[in-house]
Amino acid sequence: MKRRSIAKYAAVAAVLSLGLTACGGASGSTDAKTAGTVRVTLANHVWTEGIKAAIPEFEKSSGLKVELTQLGEDQLSDQYNVKLNAGSDEIDVMMYRPLQEGKAFAKNGYLADLTSKVSSDATWDWKDYQEGPVKATTADGKVVGVPIITEREVLYYRKDLLKAAGLEVPKTMDELEAAAKAIKASSPDTAGFVARTGKSAAVTQFSSFLYSFGGDFTDAGGKSAVNSDAAKKAYAFYGGLIKNYGPANVSTDMSWPEAMAIFTQGKAAFYTEADSLYKNATDPAKSKVADTVGFAALPAGPAGSKPYNIPSWGLAINQASSNQDNAWKFIQWATSKERTLEAQKAGVPGPRASVWADQAGTSTYPKDLAEAISASAKNGVGHDRPEVVTVGKAREIVGGPIVATITGSDASGAADTAHDAFQKFLDSEKK
Amino acid sequence: MTVLKENTEPQTAPAVPATTEPRRRKPVGTRAYKVFRVAALVAVVLFLVAPLFWMLLASFKTNVDIYDTGKSFFFTPTGENYANVLQRNNYFVFIFNSFWVAFVSTALSLVLGVPAAYAMSRFTMHRSALVVLMARVIPGVSLLVPWYYVFSNLKMVGGFEVLILSHMFVSLPLIVYIMMSYFDSLPLELEESAQVDGLTPIGAFRRITLPLSVSGIATAGILSFIFSWNNFMFALVLSGSKTKTLPVAIFDFVSYASIDWGGLMAAATVVTIPIMIIALFTQKYIVSGLTAGATKG
Amino acid sequence: MSVLTPPRSAPSRKAARTPSARENFSGWANRHRKWLFAAPAMIFVGVLIVFPLAWTLYLSLTDSQGSVRAASEFVGLQNYLTVLSDVERFWPAVGRTLSFTGVALVCEVVLGMCIALLLWRPFRGEKWVRVAILLPLVATPVAVGMMWRLIFDPNIGFVNQLLGMVGIPAQPWLSGQDTALGTTIFMDVWQWTPMVVLILLAGLTSLSEEPDEAARMDGANAFQRFFFITLPLMMPTVIVAILLRGIDALKTFDILYATKGKGGGSFHEVETLNVYAYGLSFDYNQYGLSSAVLILFFMIIIGSMWLLTMRKKAVSK
Question: How far is C90 from chain B (nearest CA, A)?
Answer without folding.
Answer: 16
